[in-house]
Design a protein that fits this description.
The complex is a heterotrimer.
Chain A lengths: L1 E4 H15 L3 E5 L15 H5 L4 E3 L4 H13 L3 E6 L9 H8 L2 H4 L9 E6 L14 H5 L5 E3 L4 H13 L4 E6 L6 E4 L12 E4 L4 E5 L4 H12 L5 E5 L2 E3 L4 H10 L2 E8 L4 H12 L9 E5 L8 H7 L3 H12 L2
Parallel strand pairs in A: 2-3, 2-4, 4-5, 5-7, 6-7, 10-11, 10-13, 13-14
Antiparallel strand pairs in A: 1-8, 6-12, 9-11
Chain B lengths: L2 E4 L9 E7 L6 E2 L4 E6 L4 E5 L4 E6 L6 E3 L3 E6 L9 H28 L3 H14 L17 H9 L18 H8 L15 H11 L2 H23 L2 E9 L1 H14 L8 H15 L6 E3 L2 E3 L6 E3 L1 E2 L4 E2 L2 E2 L7 H16 L5 H5 L3 E5 L18 E14 L5 E14 L5 H16 L2 H4 L1
Parallel strand pairs in B: 12-16, 16-17
Antiparallel strand pairs in B: 1-8, 2-4, 2-7, 3-6, 4-5, 6-8, 9-18, 10-11, 12-15, 13-14, 17-18
Helix pairs in contact in B: 3-4, 8-9, 8-11
Chain C lengths: L5 H26 L14 H8 L7 E4 L4 H6 L4 H8 L23 E4 L7 H13 L6 E6 L6 H12 L4 E7 L2 E2 L2 E2 H4 L9 H4 L4 E5 L3 H18 L3 E6 L17 H8 L3 H11 L5 H24 L5 H5 L8
Parallel strand pairs in C: 1-2, 1-3, 3-4, 4-8, 7-8
Antiparallel strand pairs in C: 5-6
Chain lengths: ~325, ~450, ~325
């Protein structure tokens, strides 16, 4: 077993995809000569050449649309949108074309593309560079959205995404690239849509994804001190989601808290909460809590950013308010 | 061969249009594409080009008429059908009335859009809504109890009354651990089996699948189930039985009945029992009380409930205020009650205000039985059949007498065995010395 | 202007008449409530679809905007399937899920009509990019209107096409109006839209889009340029739509006199004159063609009418690709 961080596992994933598929090519801003804004594509231009690794102008709508067009006729493009904040420039192509061409053509045409993008806050990058829109894309029928929190799932989910014939938004978190894990030597895939139980527990179900997983783990350690045994569920995929394991967990612990880096209003976590409330109502021993970023455009100052995003203090206070512990 | 020209659809949300102006007269030649009228839509005035060819035989609506999309406004044919068109204009006027209703509908939906803040209120209310869960009705849960959905299910399944439980959850919410403690398995939390098969769904499907008579029985059955379950759960019953020698009572009855035969009144054993009970209640009013919220409240009126078996189930209506009724009046009143019960013509008070119940299964040849008290009543008398059996007299002789077993069920929160015994003894005494019933 | 033979004349007239009659039938059926939603008719612009698409090979791609019936029919889509699609029926090209603005036919490499103005231009780029990477012969015929020129995606696409040397023929159908706004009121360079190509270093011409032979000639020239140089080309074809933007549009923003003026340049009218003057077709040939087309249209109306309604299983199908 080798130990790789998320960045390295993604590089490995991309190389695998390029090696095994003639029709795979990469597109994105500064992925080639610059070595990739997050160094995920470092060295790939030298190894695979400019036909396969295409540096694009700053034309998100243009090159995402181009990826869609190429995918419709037999190519398998992997497009990088530098951050999810910039995906707004291409949201028309993603939502109105990638998600819908298969449907509107009644299956005649498909759009097998992977859009890699980077979400989240924590880098002191200010209001326009710290947002988390993966929930938006997850609610669009026709798209699939995955979001790994560790190197094992990053590699596994990417392999599954390459095998999909559907548009997949592959959401990486800006603060997790250095998370290191043991990667199995033998080939494996992480199925899209099956949440992962990272830690079993009887007293509280804590659901999170992506950048919120480290916080979930910290909360769990803290609750251990007062003998509350937390079950941590990593969603890993926002669309599709197989809720069975979540329901099983709720039936066992009877208490649920969801961590979601998006703002409080209309967050994806509140959708999860709503589904659990409806399906597991009789098993709930308390209200379902969703802990979000405060409804504030992300301030630059570190002092302030750390209070706006979900943090330990706010999470513990909420858990106490809901359940008394 | 003629074809109707219909109000055209000229915009994806267009529902009606107004014929502003006819550009042709009846009798004109029309080719496909010729403009025949000017139509006003919400957005503009547009020329309506004919899609039929021939002669404009009939104009069906006047200028200024509002017509629904798709309804005919003219007829184009081969020229053979040119006639007057009066009736149709009346129709279009009616359509105008309909359209104004349709407009109201659109206005309402705009208002709905404005009311978005309602969503916030709903989340607040839902906490209280959780308390109103229908499952809770089977136990006497006060509407203001704060308990988690899980706690309520556990309580219900294990016959725990939550009304006096103090919850340890936030804000005093009753939570699972509180209920588990009451059940007694505070440590073995996994062992409580919660049956969450949807009960309400079964009842609903029964109601949907069956005809009305089954529906009624279902309701009554459910009511009986609720009441008896509640009684059994809440009321600490104690029971006392005694055998009553009915020889003299039967004799008196025969005498009274021969006297009243001309008036068509026939006294039953039950009437005598009722009189005895009423007299006894006057002497021991605590058995005429009601138990509510931990308090014993005395009833001024004596309203005796009698058990009447209907096809659908057992019902226990009361004779209201029979404190001062003599045997004859009691007899009339009880017959009247039975009649009206069978015809479904009881008053609300008769249904709900009983203070003491008598259940007589003598006619079914039942020797003895123990009745379930009807809350908020605090006692009930169960009467068995009158049987001829040999008894030992005071003189140690054997004699055949008419013996009737009667059992008292009483609420131990209100009375003790000794009091109950005295009460029952008095009833027995009245029946064994029926002259007491008359004076 | 080059000469054409009888067969080509017949073909062009048949195709243009087919589009004209089809569109007129759509207009009637929309007013009768058979076709719903938005309906954008190509009446007056037939010369472009027919003149340009007739020059394509099987492997070439056509991608267009929401006024797509003409392009779809010119590319060979079955009028039955198109009309049934407009009727929202199961026999439609997308079984009722696309509608007027989203006609697709993979077999004919008709890559769709698109409802977002300018939105399909980047997709056209992608089609060209794939052709290059797959080392296939082929051009992408990408139709768009004067309104789309002001979308950022037009400029992004022009840049990418030129930067990457893609085999895309940008076909700007300038019918003077972006919905209800005259091109002069929305484009600073309204009079010289084709000159945008200069900035991106690609060849461009502006042509009379009402003359099918002119369209033919310039399309052939452009395609040859693309096939030899492999870089993109732009053609601005001047044209006019005789009807409103869509069925809901009363064209209040246009003068009747302007419409009449352009109706004198009706491409079908002009071509009928041309073929008669040049002894390519007789009056009787022409009226035969008219009747032939009338039958085709009657058939497709009947087909659409008889086609069954789709059920919810159709609605739930093909949201995602699956092997089943």
């Amino acid at each position: 077993m080798a130990e790789l961080n998320i960045r390295e596992s993604l590089t490995k994933a991309l190389k695998e995809a390029l090696d095994n598929n003639d029709n795979v090519f990469l597109m994105g801003e500064d992925i080639g000569m610059y070595g990739g804004p997050y160094a995920v594509t470092k060295g790939l231009l030298e190894e695979y050449g400019s036909e396969k690794i295409m540096d694009t102008p700053i034309s998100e709508s243009g090159f995402v649309g181009a990826a869609i067009g190429a995918a419709m006729v037999g190519m398998k493009p992997i497009v990088e949108i530098m951050t999810i904040n910039f995906s707004l420039l291409a949201i028309d192509q993603i939502v109105n074309h990638a998600a819908k061409i298969h449907y509107m053509s009644d299956g005649q045409l498909s759009v097998p593309i992977i859009i890699r993008t980077v979400t989240g806050a924590g880098g002191r990058l200010g209001a326009t560079h710290s947002q988390s829109f993966e929930g938006w894309y997850a609610s669009v029928p026709g798209l699939k959205v995955v979001s790994p929190s560790n190197a094992v799932d990053a590699l596994g989910l990417f392999r599954s995404a390459i095998n999909e014939n559907n548009p997949v938004i592959f959401v990486e978190h800006c603060m997790l690239y250095n998370v290191k894990n043991e990667i199995p030597d033998q080939y494996y895939e992480t199925p899209i849509g099956i949440p992962k139980i990272l830690k079993k527990g009887d007293d509280l179900t804590l659901i999170a994804w992506s950048g919120m997983i480290p916080l979930a783990k910290s909360i769990s350690s803290e609750l251990d001190k007062i003998n509350i045994n937390t079950e941590i569920i990593d969603l890993i995929s926002l669309n599709p989601i197989d809720f069975e394991s979540i329901f099983e967990s709720v039936k066992k612990t009877n208490k649920v808290v969801i961590l979601d880096e998006y703002w409080e209003t209309g967050s994806f976590g509140s959708y999860i909460s709503s589904v659990i409330q409806e399906k597991c109502f009789d098993y709930l021993d308390g209200p379902i809590g969703v802990i979000n970023s405060l409804n504030i455009p992300m301030p630059y100052s570190a002092e302030l950013e750390d209070k706006v995003i979900p943090n330990m203090d706010r999470a513990l206070a909420k858990i106490k308010e809901l359940f008394g512990f | 061969m003629s074809e109707e020209l219909n109000m055209p659809q000229m915009g994806y949300d267009m529902k009606e249009g107004v014929v502003v102006k006819w550009l042709m007269e009846e009798g004109s030649e029309v080719k496909i594409g010729d403009p025949v009228a000017e139509i006003e839509t919400d957005k503009a005035v547009v020329e309506f080009e004919s899609y039929a060819e021939g002669t404009l035989e009939k104009i069906l609506v006047e200028e200024g008429s509002k017509v629904n999309v798709g309804e005919p406004i003219a007829i184009v044919g081969d020229g053979s059908n040119i006639t007057e068109a009066e009736e149709v204009t009346v129709e279009s006027e009616e359509e105008i009335v309909d359209e104004s209703e349709a407009e109201e509908v659109t206005v309402e939906s705009e208002e709905e859009v404005v009311d978005e803040p309602v969503a916030e209120e709903v989340t607040v209310e839902s906490e209280e809504e959780v308390v109103d869960e229908p499952v809770a009705e089977e136990i006497s849960i006060d509407q203001k109890i704060k308990a988690s959905p899980l706690a309520k299910i556990l309580a219900n399944d294990n016959n725990i009354d939550l009304s006096n439980v103090v919850g340890t959850g936030p804000g005093g919410r009753i939570v699972k651990s509180d209920v588990l403690l009451l059940i007694g398995d505070g440590e073995t939390t996994e062992k409580i089996k919660v049956d969450l098969t949807p009960k309400t769904n079964n009842v609903e499907s029964q109601i949907q699948d069956s005809d009305t008579s089954f529906k009624e029985e279902n309701k009554m059955r459910a009511q009986i189930a609720r009441v008896t379950q509640r009684s059994k759960q809440e009321v600490p019953h104690y029971y006392l039985s005694t055998d009553i020698n009915m020889d003299k009572a039967l004799e008196i009855r025969a005498q009274i009945n021969s006297k009243l035969a001309e008036q068509n009144i026939k006294i039953s054993i039950n009437d005598l029992i009722m009189k005895s009970v009423i007299d006894t209640l006057k002497k021991f009013p605590v058995f005429n009380s009601r138990y509510e919220n931990g308090t014993v409240n005395m009833n001024e009126e004596i309203n005796v409930s009698i058990a009447i078996a209907l096809d659908d189930g057992l019902i226990m209506p009361s004779i209201i205020n029979c404190n001062d009724m003599d045997i004859r009046q009691l007899s009339i009143a009880s017959k009247d009650l039975v009649d009206r019960t069978k015809n479904g013509k009881l008053t609300s008070a008769e249904y709900t205000k009983g203070t003491f119940s008598i259940s007589n299964l003598g006619m079914f040849d039942v020797n003895s039985f123990l009745a379930i008290i009807l809350p908020p009543q605090t006692a009930m008398l169960a009467v068995g059949s009158v049987k001829k059996i040999p008894i030992v007299t005071l003189e140690d002789d054997i004699k055949i007498s008419n013996i009737m077993n009667t059992s008292l069920s009483a609420d131990h929160r209100v009375t003790d065995g000794a009091e109950g015994a005295t009460f029952l003894a008095e009833i027995k005494n009245n029946l064994e010395n029926p002259v007491n019933l008359i004076i | 202007m080059s000469n054409i033979d009888k067969e080509t004349a017949r073909k062009y007239l048949l195709e243009m008449l087919k589009i004209r009659h089809f569109e007129e039938a759509c207009g009637r059926m929309y007013m009768q409530g058979k076709i719903k939603g938005f309906l954008h008719l190509y009446i007056g612009e037939e010369a472009i679809a027919v003149g340009a698409i007739s020059q394509l090979a099987k492997q070439d791609y056509v991608i267009t905007h929401y006024r797509d019936h003409g392009h779809a029919l010119a590319r060979g889509m079955d009028p039955n399937k198109v009309m049934a699609e407009l009727y929202g029926k199961k026999g439609g090209s997308s079984r009722g899920k696309g509608g007027s603005m989203h006609l697709f036919d993979k077999q004919l490499n008709f890559m769709g009509g698109y409802a977002i103005v300018g939105g399909h231009l980047p997709i056209a780029i992608g089609l060209g990019l794939a052709l290059k990477k797959q080392k296939k012969e082929g051009v992408v015929l990408c139709f768009f209107g004067d309104g789309a020129v002001n979308e950022g995606e037009f400029h992004e696409s022009m840049n990418l096409a030129a930067l990457w040397d893609l085999p895309v023929l940008f076909y700007l159908e300038n019918n003077q109006y972006g919905m209800g706004t005259h091109v002069k009121r929305s484009s600073a360079a309204a009079d010289i839209l084709y000159k945008f190509a200069d900035l991106y270093g690609m060849p461009a011409t502006r042509i009379d889009g009402m003359d099918v032979i002119t369209v033919q000639d310039s399309t052939i020239e452009a395609i040859n340029k693309i096939r030899t140089n492999s870089g993109p080309v732009l053609i601005e074809a001047m044209t006019y739509r005789f009807r409103g933007h869509s069925m809901a549009d009363p064209s209040a923003y246009r003068d009747d006199s302007e419409v009449e003026e352009w109706k004198d340049k009706d491409p079908i009218l002009l071509f009928k004159q041309y073929v008669k003057e040049n002894n390519l077709l007789t009056d009787s040939d022409i009226s035969n063609l008219d009747n032939e087309v009338k039958v085709i249209i009657e058939d497709c109306l009947k087909f659409a009418e008889d086609s069954p309604l789709p059920d919810m299983s159709v609605a739930r199908a093909k949201i995602y690709y699956s092997d089943s």
